[in-house]
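Troubleshooting: if your tokenizer reports a length mismatch, compare against these two reference records.
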Amino acid sequence: MIRSRILPAALTAVAALLGAGAVPASAQTSAAATSCYGGAKTLTYQYQTAAKEYGTYTTSSRCGDINMRLVTDAPGVYLDACVVFTDHTTKCNNGGAYTTHGTEWGTVATDVLDGTHFVLRVHAYDTDAQNVTFQIAY
């Protein structure tokens, strides 16, 4: 009779220990984002009429995408950006389209393979973007 009580108690204890080690999906996503953005590079854009290129950079396993955000307190300031995969082309990804970026993290290119070489091509959204600090994470 004692044996039958010990087995269920032991199984319950093992299940509790296994459950304690499980990390919720939201925490995993948050940890991945922290890791990705934690390695961000800070750059400065100074207004010019032509697009400016930054890089060449190489993607790593830290981020699955190439991300960008502005670090500014000035309201209404934005930058347009695209990625050029330098081993394959001299044109912007996404059919040559630029995406507009503000102070929230945004994706410039998605699902980029590790070890991919790229430059970030940036131009001002309008003349308000005179001297803008921004970050990229890849």
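Reference record two:
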Amino acid sequence: MSKQELVVLGQEDRSAACCPGLTTAPLDENRAVELAKLFKALGDPVRLRLLSMIASRAGGEVCVCDLTPAFDLSQPTISHHLKLLRQAGLIDCERRGTWVYYRVLPGTLDRLSAFLTTTQAAEATV
């Protein structure tokens, strides 16, 4: 029997995941460009706070009307930051009447997490 036949579903070798981590292999140019867009979007304290507020909200989504009062910034400035997070693929939104509700895209956060996880940390969670 080959090793592949012995792998139990859900218990695959995490070091062979589709997205190699920072310590497993050098980035190719395309992957570096993709990740740089995400990190650039997160490189602003306001956007980082917005992402955190959205991700930590019970129910997984938050109305823009609940985000704006948390900052000493104008509503158009908050909308601009949310737009940049959307363009980076970190969040998505849905309009309901006059309000827009934002939610985190977990797949993108999972890719960032997989990239930043060291091999030792990944092996410790297996």
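Descriptive notes for reference record two:
- The beta strands are 61-63, 91-96, 99-104.
- Residues 68 and 75 are 6 Å apart (CA to CA).
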